[in-house]
């Protein structure tokens, strides 16, 4: 690990000022960043510790929606009574993340900024990886692609995004609030992550020197009847092979509105917009009809050599998650 300067700030203004210095990085819970520094994935010259900005740790809710400060800990948000009852997919996604100890330290902002678990990105030896070493290629394409993307991958990168929370937030139409030297702005969660392009190392639309301040989620019938289903190699302390967040509004057994996002299958949380449209007025208990609605969204799937199973697994996960959400009706 190389030497770095450390400073702790108490206000958002001080944080933004400090962030304008070259090679500065924010540290929140440190559960990702410290590992990156040890592994050579990140080498900041300055760490700006924002944990003293108390306002950023607040979670508030009213009739219009939920606001989660970027410094709120995963465990606090998962246990929040309004999150559990009015946005259950968020609580379930958080409780399926990492371990209790990590959830006690890790923050919402840091969770959204975590980087891919692709073994080639995380490799201890130097291998081609456009995210890690821009322009070097993608070893996963000719190597072990078992955990790689089957939707939305490009010729630059086939890595998936690992955040469980981001999938739930994508399904529930969340907005990411950020602020930087030129002031605050808002980015819909579904647009917050970039698909791999010529600048594959840039994974989000956060600009240099900007900070996530809060996440907002609108209150809705769909959010209230939401579910998160995570499928993984082992039952805990593991990232998703496939995950799905669904929200439902059902009237007399027929779907009035549905909202669906997949995790573990794409470089970003993947909304199934065509499926959502096709599900309107479908009878929830008609499994064959529900499954048929998935056809268009998976038409462009591009499975590789070892991850073809993800296509079928994702389809089944969506059907199951919709049934689970429906059982709560
Ligand atoms: C063993 C292990 C298992 C895990 N399993 C899961 C899992 O199953 N599911 C899952 O979703 N996650 C999992 N995680 C990831 C975990 O949730 C993240 O490590 C954690 O959420 C990061 O939050 P943090 O506050 O510690 O971030 P930090 O480590 O402090 O920061 C991470 C990154 O976010 C940036 N950052 C932090 N806060 C902000 C902000 N407000 N604005 C802008 N940038 C910011 C930092 O600069 C850094 O780039 C796992 C992690 C570990 C180590």
CATH class annotation of one domain: Alpha Beta
- The beta-strand count equals 12
The second-level CATH architecture of one domain is: 2-Layer Sandwich
Radius of gyration, Cα only, in angstroms? 20 Å
What percent of the residues sit in helical stretches (DSSP H or I)?
25-40%
The helix tally amounts to 14
- The general outline is globular
- At CATH level 3, the topology of one domain is Enolase-like, domain 1
Run of helices and strands:
EHEHEEEHHHHHHEEHEHEEEEHHHH
Beta content comes to 15-25%
Largest sheet: 5 strands, antiparallel
Distance between the termini: 52 Å
Q: Give the bound compounds.
A: flavin-adenine dinucleotide
Low-confidence stretches: none
The named CATH superfamily of one domain: CO dehydrogenase flavoprotein, C-terminal domain
For the biggest β-sheet, the strand order reads 4-5-8-6-7
Structural class: alpha+beta
